[in-house]
Amino acid sequence: MKKRWYDYLWIASLIYLILGFFNILFAWLGLLCFFIPLLLAIFGGGKGYCNRYCGRGQLFALLGGRVGLSRKKDVPGWMKSKIFRYGFLIFFFAMFFQMLWTTYLVFAGARDLGQAVTLLWTFRLPWHWAYHGTLLHPGVAQFAFGFYSVMLTSTVLGLITMVLFKPRSWCVYCPMGTMTQLICRVKAGKE
Amino acid sequence: MEKTAVKRKKAAVADLCVACGCCVKVCPLQAISIWKGVKARVDESRCVGCGRCARECPASVISLKEVQA
Q1: Domain of B36: which CATH number?
Q2: Can you list the alpha helix ranges (DSSP code H) found in A134-174?
Q3: Per-residue pLDDT tens for A66-95?
């Protein structure tokens, strides 16, 4: 099949992760992966983001497929159940809002900037080399550390399920995918 | 000669589809599409039952069903 420009967006996803290792402020770019799918779903683009532009999904497809790092087994039944998918979405959002709250506290001066990336919502990894001080408020960096944590955590989870199950098993429980599908369901139900 | 019913296989998508679109990418006959971002739909007139989508589907919700042709 003919390759299109967006079939190479996995490179952008990879570059994003690398850039965040050197300068945490690049983590702000990750908001694109947040707003583009939502806007597409709201304004009639359906699941166009998942279907075409998701670089992360492409990266998993490549590593699990052509590189051969996946066992290519079926995901367990509970993982594709609605309860788990919506439950994970709610959990992900709760963690996201907690991250926003921490950012708010730093902006308000009630908390110092934490120069660390939290992996899997638990493990604090030192990441101070990626922060070089900024003309902007430390809160801007706090959000970057928090958002990079979200992105790295989802990448690690995705890689684990990629190895255990099919390459793009992350797509089964991806919170953005669940949310955009929910929006599309509501829209389709109204028509 | 007496006509015998020919059985063919077609892809069928279960309700737990996440609409990720992995199946669309691998279908050699463009027989599958994502309906309104909700679910994958198979155009049975095009599907030849090759099973690529079923193998690719991350949620393994596509199966091949026998239909009378």
Answers
A1: 3.30.70.20
A2: 138-164, 170-173
A3: 999 999 999 999 999 999 999 999 999 999
